[in-house]
């Protein structure tokens, strides 16, 4: 016993709390008991402290009264004889049905607002009844009385953990969260006193239901009201001590959620008719699939996630291929039910994705931690991207002009938002850098174009991330300055095809498949 005995009137306080209708565990809470083991073996704890003597089950009507009536503070939540076993079984059934494969969990309890009112009511009464124990020592309810939720976790959560074969994480750091919601039939009636007690807070909330989403009594609002309420004023509207409840708190539902699982990799896109993300305009789908869906569908199915968020290091247009090492990406799997994957299983997922699509290929697939996401976006505008463009010019290009492009280094461009994306991006002027480029004439251009008077060439270019390559080539009606045509002597140049050759971001780490 860590605290019983610190209160000079502990025996008297205990007997009085019992006479009011407090269960044994709540008595221990108000006596300041901080040893979690004391609540698991409450009868033995009280007998050892001399608070209780071993009694026959038919020892008197007052004991039957306490056994069958809900506690005036916890409303039966901590009373084994009322519904603890039933609640535990319902929680266990819900968790097992949800089927998560994690090893530990955090349990959070949501209680009706009546618990706050009743706890405050009892505290004020004890301060009046036992000033030597509660008032003169300047003890505060929230720091002295052990939290009801804490005792519930000490006594009930271990039963849940054993039944679902998972460890309880009392530090609230587990990725798996089990939210338990309890309800009380008398909650609305008991809380209605707040409308008169604090009309300045709750009448306003009542008239502005939309603003508060119809949630009139919130824990935060009630806490604020009680902290600023004089004891005499509180007692005018709510009885102190609280009355014996006519019904106990009951189980409503549980909510099981798991923090996101993050899987990263790099992808190649070999199609010129495939968008990176689903392309839907005005509710109408424009393409059958996307890079995101090809990759995500397999991952979502394997993890049994409820949803998925796809992010990549930039994006390519529908008609642009991504070759070379591919583009780094990450999939955030929302509320995954399966989170345990071996390296071999992740490799198998990668193989399945690659077998199921000829348009997209994935490499270096791996599970990462959330804090590694910053590497995907770090230096977004400083990354160098390498492109290869097939260009066409209807004008004669001066001899040596293509070769001279190779001598240009770190050319600064001024690019206004392209006309083709103005419908979805704000108008702005951005400064971007072309780090290097080189160009050469295409061999046998007549294979692609029957017009022998045109010049076709390839442009190998490295630029700052975020540079609009197409607009640099054709100028976008003068919105990009300078353009490739200007650099070649004022000719008209257009782009026929564009490939991403490399994104110079060494992330995620390369996976050596031979080593698993």
Précis, in short:
With 516 residues, the protein is of the alpha+beta class.
3D architecture notes:
This protein is α+β, with helices and mostly antiparallel strands. The chain has three domains: 177 residues, no CATH class; 122 residues, Alpha-Beta Plaits; 121 residues, Alpha-Beta Plaits. It has 22 helices and 16 strands. The strands form three sheets. Strands 5, 8, 9, 10, 11, 12, 13, 14, 15 and 16 form a ten-stranded mixed β-sheet that branches. Strands 2-1-3-4 form a four-stranded mixed β-sheet. A hairpin with a 7-residue loop joins β8 and β9. α6 packs parallel to α11 and α17 packs across α18.
Number of domains: 3
Number of helices: 22
Mean pLDDT: 88
Radius of gyration: 35 Å
Global morphology = elongated
Structural class, by secondary structure, is: alpha+beta
The oligomeric state of the chains shown is single chain
The proportion of residues forming helix, as a percent range, comes to 25-40%
Mind describing the biggest β-sheet? 10 strands, mixed
- Strand percent estimate: 15-25%
Span from first to last CA?
53 Å
Which residues form runs of ≥5 with pLDDT under 50? 56-66
* Strands, count: 16
